[in-house]
Amino acid sequence: MLGTAFQFKNVARRRWGIVLVASLVTILSFGSVSRADATSAQQVSAAESNALAGPAVPPTQWVYIRSFVSDLNLGVSGSSPNNGAPIIQWKREGKQDQAWKFIKPTSSSTSSYIVNAGTSSWKAMGVSGGSKANGGKIIQWDYLGVADQIWRLEEVGTNSYQKIYYRLVNLNSDKCLAVPNGATTPVQAIQWDCSYNRPDQWWFLPPWPAS
């Protein structure tokens, strides 16, 4: 009987040892998964934190609207004074048709219309035909106060030089100002579904006419 009891105790100890080791492995494995999940959550949070914080405060001075991907600046094609003239990206020339100003419709507005200095009437940036579709063309038009001429500025991040870059969301379509296919040549700007992993929707706003 004593031998049997001794054997039983040894078996019980071995079983408890196995249980403890298995539990420890489970805890360590769970900890690893949790760290991975936390990292993923942090990445998502970092990408979207600015949007959750609300619209950014627009600059008060005249600025360039400069593409993150092409380093080209938005301007009016051919410096045209006409309604419907395309808004294209072009090398920096310091001309007035590359100068833009954000103006709030009312003092309490969280969005702005964006006027161009190239004409005496300061025409506004809008979406051709008030389109809500992907690929809608960006043009200038007399400011009418319509939704496709209103834009919400959102801070996206900063580059290695600590310069802030933004995205511009159209009030009418809820789509973002973009360079089609990330082009690095002169091309008309469009609107497209907003995404935080699309650098062709990111814009710097350096002061005009400084470099």
UniProtKB/TrEMBL annotation:
Signal sequence bounds: none
Domain of life: Bacteria
InterPro entries in the cross-refs: Ricin_B-like_lectins, Ricin_B_lectin
CDD domains referenced in this protein's UniProt entry, alphabetically: beta-trefoil_Ricin-like
Domain annotation Ricin B lectin: ranges: 62-205
One Pfam family from the record: Ricin_B_lectin
Name of protein: RICIN domain-containing protein
Protein source organism: Actinoplanes aureus
